[in-house]
Amino acid sequence: MNLWAAPDQPTLEDFGNDVWWIVLIKVVGIFGVLVLMTLFAIVFERKVVARMQQRIGPNRVGPRGYLQSLADGLKLAFKEDIMPALADKPVYFLAPIIAAIPAFLAFSVIPLGPTVSIFGERTPLQLTDAPIGVLVVLACSAMGVYGIVLAGWASGSTYPLLGSLRSAAQMVSYEIAMGLSIVAVFLYAGSMSTSEIVAAQADGNRLDFFGFEFTGPSWFAVLLPVSFVIYVIAVVGETNRAPFDLPEAESELVGGFHTEYSSLKFALFFLAEYINMVTVSALAATLFLGGWRAPWPISIWDGANTGWWPLLWFFLKVVAALFVFIWLRGTLPRLRYDQFMRFGWKVLVPTALVWILVVATMRTVSREADLSTGQVALFVGVPVAVLVLVGLLLASRSANSDTRVMAEQASAGAVHANDPEPEVLPPAGARRRPTGGPSRAEGGFPVPPMDLKVPPSPRLRREGSGAGTTEPGTGVVGTGRRGTATIEEDGDV
Q: What is the three-state SS of 352-421?
């Protein structure tokens, strides 16, 4: 396989030699592309989900509603910024920034196209690259966890803290599976540089199947299907997208780690989520779908992979990957948290480890024993696949044995639907509240504290007396009725 089939294919030596204004153009261009892709992804998601649910979707702002995401961004920018009184102010302000900046940095090593001419200067359509370029993306995605955890902790409320802890556990767990899924790509490409991984998928692979030679596909999504499937599942979990959006499960956590955020700080979390979607989609296109190279049969055209045309093929692949995110959200229900974590640690991670062992074994046997591709697949791949399938079958039967026994007993009439259910809630403890609610410390049901304090609006404070003011000394925003403030009595607070 010729790794450098195209004359415009950039190499590692081509980076770090650009003049300063070319670097500035690339930086501004990547920032603009990510912001525009975020605006597009929001409208695209709302339109596609509306189509799946047989409703209209956004259709008011702009032609056919395509400017709805821009209107939402402007609305967030002009909303009043409210910060809880119990929040840790410095960390509360820094958390959205810590979450958003790594999302932008991760896109710096993604190749968007070949070497082109910009105002007479030859430069690759990529900001930078390194021998460990893919690890830069993984490091940036790991840094985003800090922003989420700090946001939940600094909010001074229980629900955001629970959401941030769940998000940290989820992202760390599925980032391990994502990292293991691309090890096989490194073995095949012989490099961790993003530009060289794209180059490794340039031409078709020469395959020898028991004497019959033919040109096979070169995309790693075809050559390494297990890695591709694990990667797709892992990035959905790492980006907190449905059906894995458990840190933002509104049925149990209100809004997750960003419950107490509003205005531009909430917009930064929103921006970071969608930029992470675009980044992992672009990384999937780079690692598994040939990068910026045109798919067959467009690649038959000689000019498909030269000039500025590769930008089109690259973003079409990214949009296709974004559609998969949206498709999953509109199709699958949310998982239970314990099922989700069990799936990541007991299914994805072991499968990825076994797959790495299989790929390394097949490549070593093929090189050392001088066997053809068909012989390696027959003598190594098929037996390993049979063993893995048998192991998964036995593990599934063992894990579901209790459920199967109960189902057999129910079918035989041993279990009836009208049998009383066992008591699962803890007994109520001593009464310590005026309403008679059980004390959590005494064994009552774990209800989060309802003592969140919100300071009065500075705008209302400036207006002085009149409607919508605050009572002196109370710190509670008035209702605006007849110039007086009313405080609803709640014996549970």
A: HHHHHHHHHHHHHHHHHCCCCHHHHHHHHHHHHHHHHHHHHHHHHHHHCHHHHHHHHHHHCCCCCCCCCC
Strand partners, 205: 216
DSSP characters for 428-479?
A: P--B-STT-PBPTTTT---PPP-----PPPHHHHHT-SSTT-B-TTT--B--
The answer to pTM > 0.70 is yes
Interatomic CA distance for residues 9 and 162, integer angstroms? 47
User: Is residue 355 a contact partner of residue 227, using CB atoms and an 8 Å limit?
Assistant: yes
Q: Tally Cβ neighbours within 10 Å of residue 39.
A: 19
Which element (helix H / strand E) includes 253? helix 250-253
Dihedral (CA of 63, 64, 66, 72) sign = positive
- Which DSSP string do the residues of 290-314 spell out, in sequence order? -TTSPPTTGGGSTTTTSTTHHHHHH
At 268, is the secondary structure helix, strand, or coil? helix
Q: What number of other Cβ atoms are within 10 A of residue 6's Cβ?
A: 16
State pLDDT tens for residues 270-303.
899 899 999 999 999 999 998 898 887 787 787 8
Residue whose pair of structure tokens reads 């989420």 in the numeric block? 148
Instruction: Show Cβ contacts of residue 422 under 8 Å, excluding neighbours closer than 6 positions.
Output: none
Please check the confidence at residue 120 and state whether its pLDDT lies above 60.
yes
Q: Which has the closest alpha carbon to 447: 252, 257, 168?
A: 252
What was the pLDDT predicted at 378? Answer: 67
Structure confidence by residue, pLDDT tens digits, 350-385: 989 988 988 888 888 877 877 766 667 667 777 777
Whether the CB-CB separation of 310 and 112 falls below 8 Å is answered with: yes
Q: Centre a 10 Å sphere on the Cβ of residue 117 and count the other Cβ atoms it contains.
A: 10
pLDDT at position 173 is 87
Say how far apart CA 105 and CA 266 lie, in whole Å: 20
Token duo for residue 3: 């790794």
State the burial class of residue 212 (Cβ atoms within 10 Å of its Cβ: 0-12, 13-18, 19+): exposed
Query: Which residues sit opposite 124 in a β-bridge?
Result: 115
The rounded distance, in Å, linking the Cα atoms of 192 and 177 is 17
> Is pLDDT of 326 > 90?
yes
Task: Provide the residue type at 428 as one letter.
Answer: A
Let me know how long the chain is.
493
Higher pLDDT, 389 or 91: 91
105: its two tokens: 């940095």
Tell me which residue of 345, 170, 139 sits closest to 256, measured CA to CA: 170
- Separation of first and last alpha carbons in the chain: 71
Instruction: Return the bridge partners of 470, or none.
Output: 477
Alpha-carbon span 397 to 29, nearest angstrom: 53
What the block records as the tokens of 11 is 């190499």
134 touches 110 (CB < 8 A): no
